[in-house]
């Protein structure tokens, strides 16, 4: 990947925070999403946002499916940027929301997590069933790790569903990322930001399903390790945070991937230490590693202040298009 951060935006923290708040992430006409609700096999629902015209008019165009990051949505700056780039190429675009992230609390006694490849598998199978053209899939941060876990678990059979996949700034080693986000500036800023929305949602889930977990202890959670230990792990069949982080991490299984896969991580990402990133010998022949020195966590701003964030999605979509 070719990327050089602008001189006015130095360092991984600035390259993470500024683009998400201030850089331009939409272009041309307003993005017009059409929401569709899918009933899940376990009696719950997920909401899918389609871009622009009704899906039937997409014909055999490529469909780009984007999986968002932790507490993300179709309104996230990365989602908007990828939708803009997909529209400029004439691709169909869809953004499924993980449970509880579309603005409405889901119904079942579960939420979502970084290794949720079963949910990704169900979603992608439905997209493939609905769409006549080729399906390409990308995932941002948490969504990218879950997408790679899907590709790893499905091996050669993944090719029947998606032509190629890409993870963007994903914590492929969840233990290393968990330690990083729980320290120093990251703990003061990002951990607080995530817990500010995650804890209230979890407590609303407890109102739906009394006794699901210890609400008083969850109210006292001060980092993602404690939150995952009290909520994410037990709700999704893991023994503990350590068990969850170990079993959900995509890095140990990259060699199992049998479709073209791009793994993009900036080496100055505050959430994902460069020391934990995979090397080519970890990845196998189907995986391409892009590890630019700069970019932050899903930042990659370009141009004059306030900048824009289209460059990275353009390069990712160029790479995905080669699989067509």
TrEMBL record:
GO terms, molecular function: hydrolase activity
Top-level lineage group: Bacteria
Chain ranges of the AB hydrolase-1 domain: 62-303
InterPro entries assigned to the protein according to its UniProt record, in alphabetical order: AB_hydrolase_1 (IPR000073), AB_hydrolase_4_sf (IPR050960), AB_hydrolase_fold (IPR029058), ABHD4 (IPR012020)
Family per record: Belongs to the AB hydrolase superfamily. AB hydrolase 4 family.
Organism: Roseateles oligotrophus
Organism placement in taxonomy: Bacteria, Pseudomonadati, Pseudomonadota, Betaproteobacteria, Burkholderiales
Protein name: Alpha/beta hydrolase
Keyword tags: Hydrolase
